[in-house]
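May I ask for whichever protein you like with its backbone structure tokens?
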Amino acid sequence: MVGRDPLIQQLWQTLERQSVLLTSERRIGKSTVVRKMYKEVPEDGFRCFYRDLEGLSAPEEFVERVYLDVKDVLDRADRAKLQFHRLLAELGGAEIWKLKLPHLQQRWKDLLATLMADLCRAEGRMVVFFWDELPLFIHDVKLKSGERAAMEVLDVLRSLRHHHERLRMVFTGSVGLHLVLKDLRKKRYANAPTNDLRTVEVPPLEPEEGARLARLLVEGEGLSCVEDRDSVAGRISEAAGHIPFYIHWLVARLAVANAPVSGEAVDAQLQSLISDSDDPADFGYYRRRLDTYYDRGETVLALAALDAVAAHQGPLGFEGLLNLVRHRQQSAQPEALRDVLQLLERDHYLMRGSSDGRYGFRHSPVQRWWRFARA
């Protein structure tokens, strides 16, 4: 992995003090970062566990996975001192997966609490759980088990962080947790289950690191370049928005083209990737996500705003953007648009200039695809 060592060092330092909510747009590299951290834990001070939660949709399934992840640690502890195994015995199960489902559904909070208490007592080090796709898991719990169950999962996790000073959690996923919380608050959920987490954004690579990754990939593929290799690598990284996922895709397509690489060839392959009817880079996700996580009124305004920003040459101020949105939606109200723009910022579609507050796409490949797809 290229260019992430400073970020990883920052995250380890943060975890000494508090848990982390890792954010960024999809494909930026959040999962890669946490997997690298899990594989390369500092020699002392941390005991880490990693789990991808995609596919789970019930609290009791989550407890089962946590148990399986920490079982080896608990097996080395004095079993007679473990509250978790005493609770299992009371419930009539020697192992968690042997419990009848109703028992587990009714007592999952107690099981998780005793499991974490036992783990923190057994480990003298900081305990860190890397939970990938946690927002998606909470969303699926809401759909399958109901809003109350989703709220309880969030509240229980926050309570556990509060009660165990050596317990840390890292949440990451392709869906922003704020979108899930937005839906829950419509059901009168008033708690703040993440206000103890530090939010850390995983940005695209720095330009020089993006160019280094591109150069290594070009060399690995044995590609010849019309211009000098460093210039071509810089063009690849810039065209990809310095995002590793798109850098890999561009180099792969250049390799298939089997021709000397130039700046013009890089731009042509990006356009080919964007216009490919099979959408191998899954740009269409950016459009589909709006229907899934925004309500109807928000989606209509979001589409109008994104269409306007994508088509405009350069960033747009709010009044100019409002006028363009009203060409598409005459009834658009300023405050409703402001609320949607804030959502689009948090979801990494748009960004605002720090000095003038104008709106532009955060990532150039996404803007280029949006302009092509919505023309």
